[in-house]
Every structure is written in structure tokens, then in C-alpha cells.
Amino acid sequence: MGGTAISSDSRVHPDLVGRVASGDADALADLYRLHGTVLFRLARRLTASMEDAEDVLHDLFVGLPESIHKYAGRGSLIGWLKRVLARLALMRLRAERRRREVQLHEGIPETRVRAADDARWDLERAIATLPDDLRTVLVLRQTEAYSHDEIASLLGITPGASRVRLSRAVKLLSTALRGRI
Asked: How far apart are CA 124 and CA 3, in angstroms?
């Protein structure tokens, strides 16, 4: 690939952002290798769909050469990428809601190997069934460790509304998982 050196502590080489902005495909591939897995996991949790997560991640990287100039080196690049990805996921969820598409959930595996896998599967399924607005706050707060102020800014709500949505999400999860975990 290109001559971009990416250090082992996951910090981006200073010229990588500029190379991505100039349309360097090798730089974009380097950025994907560096952060693609983390970004996909976030997209999967936000959309509750493998296909939608793949589409959101694709949209992020396709548009990155044109939008990366907005990063401007403020804060960490992965933090900025996560915010952009979250916005793309939310736009996708809103568009689907407007079209009233029915989400098909993945089938339950026929055999489960261990109790820990069962619990994780039940939790992932329960999270996936939460309403979009509650699931989004839960994932951003509990999984991505965003503050309520950051979530409020990202979603266009108040920090208090973020706290209320998190509380409702936790109550719904508790009810859904009662006796399963």
C-alpha cells in the first residue's frame, strides 16, 4: 500500500488525512484497516442490522474524501469518524421509518455453544428490538461512552432527554431479559 506509516498506538500519521482528502485510494484503505472494525461494530449496534451497518460504513468511506476536510484536526480522528457514522446511521433509520419498511431480524441460531453466548445473543436481540431513539442513546452512552451532553448535541435533544431515553431503554431491556440472563 502507500507509504503511510501508522503507528501501533492507533494514531494517524499526520499526512493520512490530507492524502484521503486528495482522493488517495491507498490512504483510504489504510484508514479503513485502522478503524473499519470499530466503526462497523458501532454501525451494527445503531442500526440493528448487518446489511444497514454495511451500507452505513460504505457510505461513510465513499464520502470521506469529500468530507474529511471538516475534521480539521480537532480531537481524535476516530471520535470524529464515529460522530459522522452515527449521523449517517440516524439518517438511514429516519429514512426507513418514513418509508415504513419492515425490519427483518436475523434468525436464531439452531445450536448455541455456551451460556455466555446465549446471554450475549439475548442481549443483542433485546437491544435490536428497542425503538431507534432509545437504542441510539443506549449504544452511544453505554457502548461508546459518550456523555449525555455529547449525545444531546449529536441528536439535537437536551441532555435531560438523553438521560430519560437511557432510563427507558434500560427498563425495556430489563423487562425483555428478565429470566433469560
From this structure: 39
